[in-house]
Amino acid sequence: xxxxxxxxxxxxxxxxxxxxxxxxxxxxxxxxxxxxxxxxxxxxxxxxxxxxxxxxxxxxxxxxxxxxxxxxxxxxxxxxxxxxxxxxxxxxxxxxxxxxxxxxxxxxxxxxxxxxxxxxxxxxxxxxxxxxxxxxxxxxxxxxxxxxxxxxxxxxxxxxxxxxxxxxxxxxxxxxxxxxxxxxxxxxxxxxxxxxxxxxxxxxxxxxxxxxxxxxxxxxxxxxxxxxxxxxxxxxxxxxxxxxxxxxxxxxxxxxxxxxxxxxxxxxxxxxxxxxxxxxxxxxxxxxxxx
Length: 291
What we know:
This protein is 38% helix and 20% strand. It is built from 8 helices and 14 strands. The strands form 4 sheets. The chain has an 8-stranded mixed sheet, with helices on both faces. It starts with 6 loop residues before the first strand and ends with a helix.
C-alpha cells in the first residue's frame, strides 16, 4: 500500500452517523484545499432496487431466508477491491452512482433505484474517500481494506442500530414492525459474517453508546439523541496519538483503556476534526514526497 494516491474508507451501517462523518471530512477537505473523489458504497450493490426485490422473493421461495444487502451475493466485492487497487496505484478507477430517489435520478433521466453507467473517476484528485458498508470487507481472496491508508469504523451498539432501523423504516418508509423485524433477522448471518469483522480491521472506530435504556429496542418510542449518548473512540495503534490534547479539547471525555477515549455524543464531529486533520495532512505529505 503506497500513499501515492491515498484512500480513506469509512465503514458504517446506515443510520450509524455516517452523515456526520461525511460532513466532517468535507469540512476538513475544504479547509485544507484537498480535492477528493467521493465513492458511495451503494454503487457497488450487485442489483438495482427492482432486481433486488425479485432476488429476495426468489431466495425466500427457495427457502433461503438469509439473502441480504450485507453479504457477497448482493454486492460486487471484487469490483470494489479493483477500484481501491487501481486508485491506490494510478489515482483512477471505474465507478457508477446508485440513484436513491427522484432528486438524485432527475439529472440522469433515470428511474430512482437504478445505477448510472460505469465511468472513469475524474482526474487530478488528491485522495479517494469511500463511505459505505464494505470499506474493509473480506470474502475468500477479496480483501478490500488492504488497499486503504485510513480505515474508519462508525457503528452504533446493536440495540441502537435496531431502534434506528425500526424508526426509519416504519416512519419514513411505512413498513410494519413485523416486516422490519423480518429484515433484521434475515440480515443477521451476513451482519455477523461480513459487517462486524470489519470493525476489527479498522484503524479508528467510533461506537455510539446510548446513556438511556435501550434494552428492548422494539418498544423504544424515540431514537436516543447525540446528547443522550457517549461515543467510544478506539485506536488500533495508539502510538503517536496525543491523548492528553484530545482529553483537554473534548470536554467531559475520559480514557477507558490505553487505546480508548469516551466522549459526549454531541462532540463526535469535533473529535473527528481533531483526530483526522493531522492524519490526512500526514497522508498528503507522504503523497507529495512519493511523487
